[in-house]
Amino acid sequence: MHLFIYFYFFFFFFFQAEDGIRDAQESRGLGDVYKRQPSDYWLSRRASMIEAVWGYDAGLPPRATPDTITKTNVTGVSQLEWNLGSPGPNAPAIISKVYEVRKAPGGGRAPRAFLLHHGHSLAPEPSGNWYDHYNMSGFLGDMADADVYILSMPLYGCNAIAGIRSSHSWFQQFERPGNSPIVNSSSTLRYFLEPVVLTANYAFSLGYESVSLTGKSGGGWTTTLVAAMDTRLHLTIPDAGSIPFEFNHTSWDYEQLPLRGELYARCDYTCMYILAGLEPGRLSVQVLHEDDPCCFRGRGRHPQILAYNDGVQGVLETRSGGAGWFSTGVVDWNVHEYSPRDRKLITEVWGAFVKNAPRSAYDALPCDILRAPHLHCSV
Q: pTM here?
């Protein structure tokens, strides 16, 4: 009986949610479907996501103190460790390492914190280093006057485990039904998402006035999911991390597979975009690359991208009590990286966000060829 209910919910929500972007000419289709839902529908979707990851009636994990905090041999850089426990019998504990990079080494804490997620990165890019593969911590720290916390996915980079290859399909052997009467919970997703929530908990416990989140590739995927669930994160910028399932993307990583319905049947990516901007004061700007050779390119898809944006924004515009905002920017770039144009776009987003700029500001961002190709991109 539970199996029947599970598949009913999967197909009902999956196809209802994504149906609105099937035709690029019907850009309001998605919004019209979603706007017919009761006012608490979105809160129930968020609760269902959290349930699918952490179990029935569990909520977001509250822990705020790392298991260890160790100074590294780099001034101003400390290593935090979160012990997430073992996913199953005879499996090693999953330890998530996080690097705290102080904006003012040897000085006090910056007023803000920015979380940066490396995703699947195994080694530093040419301009990066052992703790900051993308060489983004200085940029984010200077831009936002922030300390930066750098995370990676399980089994990758600093989280590699000897004797286990860097493949997330390793987690499949430990997936099991959860204790929800409806959702077939796959608790292995907590090893991907929990370190971000715990690090945000830690950052807020230190008294930062705000905590923001960005990540590229798998880090962009992580940003998308966490932004949908954790309302404390007012600014989130997923970079090359997702696109709605209707685009028939073919290079999904294991944890992103559309048919892992225990999570995505409750809230698909388009639903997550709505949740990331659901509350007043929240902003999520998705960054894609026009000719990304890896993931979620923009070329040939601009009408469809604008269509799902239009649907998401239609929900936020009409939400009783107000809402935040979601928008997508596409930069003209052909490498899967935080490019100079990504950084310019992110800088413009930050500037508009801290000024509490009107929503129209995100339709006129330099380097965004989706909405503002006429603007000069000076990089």
A: 0.89
